[in-house]
Amino acid sequence: MKALKRSSLTDIIGLGLIFGVAIFSLILLVAPSIIVLIISFDTRAYVSFPPEGFTLRWYGEVFQKSELVESMLNSLQVGLTVTVLCILLGVPTALACVRGRFRGTTALSVFVLVPHMVPGIVLGVAVLFAGALVGVSPSIWLQSVAITVFILAVMVRTVQSRLMRLDPALEEAAANLRATPFQSLRTVTFPLLMPAILAGSVFTFVEGIDNLSVAIFTHGFRDRPLPVELLALVQYTSTPLVAAVSGVQIVLAIVALIAVSLTIGLDNVND
């Protein structure tokens, strides 16, 4: 009886510790973003916490500054380009890795993952030098290609995870009904992969508009994305305008996650 009570007490203490660590980790993850959002509404003309009042002045200034608006548009263009490239390259690569009947499928999976494991700064410098060797100057297109190389593994892994859970018998049934491989792919495989493709698209889009480590080396002088513009802004001003720009990025990321949750559900991303 005593051993049973000790065991129950140990379980309670263990669960309490796990719960406490989880709450503490959640606070560490969320608190910085919440603080930035709170500061962005401060009435004072310098960064301080807690704020003294509430105002939307700094968000108004964000959209009044032409360089910030242009950088937002550049980031949106990069994000959309990266998303399209990741879909066009990542989905066929995932299909080849999972359904491919050739030697080297494992090597292909590893090869796709390697750029994502390399620090973004290293990859950015490498793409910059490679572009110089072939005569391609830093631009919004070079930046898009570099970020695509960096995060292509996100799309591939997301689609792979979904594809590995699909029953091959569905595709075999389509073949037995005299469907061509392309028809089977279009009518059976792609509809079932759509949740994973949409989820991967959201993740790559958010990374495309928020990436700094790669973009800082590959963007053009007139194509500065929002993260690079924000870095320059931090160096020359200490007003809540910086927090307001960060708030815009945070809201974009939250909206993207809400869109995934409402359309396919976060629980269905890898199912």
From TrEMBL:
Question: Which spans of this chain does the record mark as coiled coil?
Answer: none
Q: What single Pfam family name could you report for this chain, choosing any that match? A: BPD_transp_1
Task: Tell me the Gene Ontology biological-process terms attached to this UniProt entry.
Answer: transmembrane transport
How does the UniProt record describe the way this protein sits in the membrane? Answer: Multi-pass membrane protein
Alphabetical UniProt keywords: Cell inner membrane, Cell membrane, Membrane, Transmembrane, Transmembrane helix, Transport
Under PROSITE patterns, the record lists:
ABC_TM1 (PS50928)
Known Gene3D superfamilies for this protein? Answer: MetI-like
Quote the protein name from its UniProt record. ABC transporter permease
Q: What's the family?
A: Belongs to the binding-protein-dependent transport system permease family.
Q: Where mainly found?
A: membrane
| Domain ABC transmembrane type-1 residue range list | 72-263
Entry's Gene Ontology cellular component terms? plasma membrane
Which residue spans traverse the membrane? 12-41, 76-98, 110-134, 140-159, 188-206, 241-266
What subcellular locations does the record give? Cell inner membrane; Cell membrane
Q: Which domain of life is it from?
A: Bacteria
